[in-house]
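My main concern about presentation is that the manuscript never shows what a single data entry looks like. An entry of this sort, consisting of the sequence and the corresponding backbone structure tokens, reads as follows:
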Amino acid sequence: MTSTEQAVQIDGDKLMQFVFRAVDEVGATLNTALVVMGDKLGLYRALAGAGPLSPAELAERTGTAERYVREWLNAQAAGSYVEYDPDSGRYTLPPEQAVALTDPESPAYLPGFFQIALGSVLDSPKIVAAARSGAGFGWHEHVHDVHEGCERFFRPGYNANLTANWLPALDGVVAKLEQGALVADVGCGYGASTILMAQAFPNSTFAGSDYHSGSIEAARHHAREAGVTERASFETAPAAAYGGSDYDLVTMFDCLHDMGDPVGAARHVRGTLKPDGTWMIVEPQAGDRTEENFNPVGRAYYSFSTLLCTPASLSQDVGLALGAQAGEARIRDVVTAGGFTRFRRVAETPFNLVFEARP
């Protein structure tokens, strides 16, 4: 008997419940890599709508090795991602999983979520070292799966909500965009939000910016593919120093909490807006009290915050480190400190809060 067991009586049933819960979580952690594997190898896409397939048939359709595919399929079946028929030895991807795993236009599309999670785990040894010293770890220092996965994770939600719900919730903004407005999309990453707005409002001009040059290069490429380069441009610049002035609208999507000096960024936004301009801030869904975020979404965001958001802020000047679960009250404090007098929540989803700020 250990000293811990002598001091505290252990409930054996509760202990084993926790152990098996941990086993399930290890399986889920490993499945993150398997989902990314299935996405990159085209296994889900080959299964979608194909009916029951054997491992050999799936391997032939995807140009992969049958022995790997068989083990992958069994792991997917054990996790209820695919269905297995023991009589035929074949596997089927249910239509609901097919939507979530193969349709990038669906708001339920998940591969990007798994990709950014895998990239975060791959970089976790560097975060362990940073946690010992208190140093930061910049967004630009992460592996490619973090950058690409972030865009693929957020884009479906933007596609579903940005032009249909979020922008219309802002006072008078859609009318300005339809007539022809000047917009700065700050912290634009790969440009998903910038391009989506440029496609929806051809009379307006959009200037995307991000401090990560690699993301800006990708944004320019995506803009060329989308055919919006005449009204969507991109520059490498930090949030407190992006170019231009007299903007009708400034947007920040899921990035304010990552900034080292969000108050400084807010002041810069205030200085670049027209007197009647609007700042739209999209942030992760979060309650103001810590315990309000003890749910599946909050757990995922606290985890990303530990591995991505907090280190990113700490790597920059000031290093306020709001964290991904900052909540409305802390965002309001940042906005008010930046010189804005009007602030309100205008929309929300299970994953996001949307705020409007005005001078």
